[in-house]
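dude i think i finally got it to work??
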Amino acid sequence: MNLITEYVQRRFDGFDQQVLSLYAKGMTLSDIRMQLQELYHGADISESVISQITDDVIDDVKAWQNRPLESVYPIVYFDCIVVKVRQDKRIINKSVYIALGVDLEGKKDVLGLWISENEGAKFWLANLTEMKNRGLNDILIACSDNLTGMSEAIQSVYLKTEHQLCIVHQIRNSLKYVSYKHRKSLVADLKPIYTACSEEQAMQALEFFENKWNKQYPQIAKSWYKNWDNLMVFISYPTEIKRVIYTTNAIESVNSQLRKVIRNKKVFPNDMAVFKIFYLAIENITKKWTMPIQNWNTAIAHFMIKFEDRINLN
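look at this
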């Protein structure tokens, strides 16, 4: 150990925050140690000290996860990121589920994080009930990928909420097994489905697509038929609302930044380690969220018309 003892290390002004900032960027404990040695002129700062500092945020994580929420969110996006976690002497894949809300002012906020090996109606029922207990009484529109059990859970907890499946995710899923040479023309034939002015017109476009592509890619039309009710929720909305719900770009942007943070974390030692880094990363990301999302001023006017009995801006 250098002249700087562990006690003195913790006493440096801003030292803990420096450690947390580096950890939130996805640096490993050994990388942080090397960085601190440079910053503090060769001080031999142990990884155990660094680990203890990151452990100190666990209470903050729990408080954040249980904090009160707004009573109404016009839009809540749901999505997930898969991570590897060590559990029972095995390394398993777990999904970290993220809820991103857009409040009545059009500002984004991450409402919660949940981690699970398996999703399903019971899992989502518990998560949505938790959000309701934190004060979220109404979600006007929930947007998600086709998460198992999500629709059933929403209907149980938020009876009036309309569940819109993400069109972008649906298109990506449709292209999973499509030959590269067919992608451009196939995407062009999907577009009339989700840009239709009515459900009848959208169905005609899907039938045209099915007749043209079913022989080569029968699973695509089948998937659109299967998810039809939730894919077509937005058809009845005015263009101003469609612009802000038809894709989950808002949450995909968050996920993209989170993936950059965790790319050096090959395996997490436990679930709490996952929560720590996600929480710290989200703190950094959300500092920049000071303005409403794009096109919100025109969208909220139409939300107030369509959901007038459920919105109170006073």
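Residues 6-56 form one domain.
im so relieved honestly
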